[in-house]
Amino acid sequence: MNVNPPILDPEAWTLDVGGAVAEPYALAYDDLVGHDASVEQTTTMVCISNRVGGDLIGTAHWTGVQLSDLVDAADPATDAADVVTHAADGYSEAIPLDLVEREDILIAYGMGDRTLATEHGFPARLLIPGRYGMKMTKWIDRIEVTGTDHEAYWEARGWDEEAVVNTMSYVRGAERDGDRVVVGGVAFGGLETGIEELSAVEVSVDDGETWGDAELEAPIAPHAWRRWRYEFDAPDRTEFDVVVRAVRRDGTVQTEERTEPRPGGSTGWHRTTVEVEPAATE
After folding, report:
1. Which CATH fold would you assign to the domain 168-275?
2. Taking 70 as the threshold, does the pLDDT of residue 190 lie above it?
3. Contacts for 79 with CB less than 8 Å, ≥ 6 apart
């Protein structure tokens, strides 16, 4: 998060679309909010600095305009390579032009059925499901189509250029239900195809010796995490070491290898100790 986010006046702000295009143009704030290509979607966002089991992840309902509509309206050059989003504070990020054609990539102006807050990027920000937050420029005031590859701020400092979200599953809590213990959490499979990729979440309470299938809640949206819960008998214990891993639809099991966030986001199974109340006695 920017320590001193720019304060922008929506009456004076414009979104300029230009670069290697035939028809550059500018949109006022009211034009963006009233755009015919406005859509709504629920999307999970993850910071690339998030460690395994960390809390730099969240899900929100967003409103915005499909980036493809904004770019296509400017008629990009046939040899265009990247679309660069520029922020009012000087930050910039780039994505390949062919990726822009995904209908789930938005220039968002609303979050949680409200106008974007300043800290979240008001008046407009980029939203790319399945990519880490570093790709999602806040406080956008310019969209530039370029004929050459653009080296963005974090890529120049050694972070991954594509920043595709790694498959993850986290334990978020546990409680007792009689002689049974219920463990719960969230899992996110990445969304490069624009389709929910998780098929299962597996939980172990014996350090990976055996695994059980968790109950997965129905997806709240194609671009969002899924909540899971796992029950097991434990009448005589109050402390448990829990391990969780996710499985993708192609059968790929989330990697056990633990890596640091830099350069391409953390990986590894989430291992944690949970405590619950003792079982009631007669």
Report:
1. Immunoglobulin-like (2.60.40)
2. no
3. 20, 147
Q: How far is CA 153 from CA 90, 93, 158, 187, in A?
A: 10, 7, 9, 29
User: pTM for this structure?
Assistant: 0.92
Helices (H), the chain: 29-33, 67-72
| Distance separating alpha carbons of residues 89 and 176, to the nearest angstrom | 49
Q: Write out the residue limits of the CATH 2.60.40.650 domain(s) in the chain.
A: 168-275
Q: Which of the four pLDDT bands, split at 50, 70 and 90, describes residue 222?
A: confident
Cβ-contact 198, 215 below 8 angstroms: no
| Residue type for position 219 | P
Please determine, for residue 194, whether its predicted confidence score (pLDDT) is greater than 50.
no
DSSP, residue by residue, 61-111: EEEEEEHHHHHHTT-B-TT--EEEEEETTS-EEEEETTGGG-TT-EEEEEE
3-state DSSP call for residue 8?
coil
Label residue 39 exposed, middle or buried (CB < 10 Å: 0-12, 13-18, 19+). middle
Alpha-carbon span 105 to 84, nearest angstrom: 13
Amino acid at 147: G
Q: What is the CATH number of domain 14-157?
A: 3.90.420.10
The set of residues, in sequence order, having a beta carbon less than 8 Å from that of 133 and lying 6+ positions away, is 45, 46, 47, 48
Task: Tell me the sheet residues that pair with 198.
Answer: 248
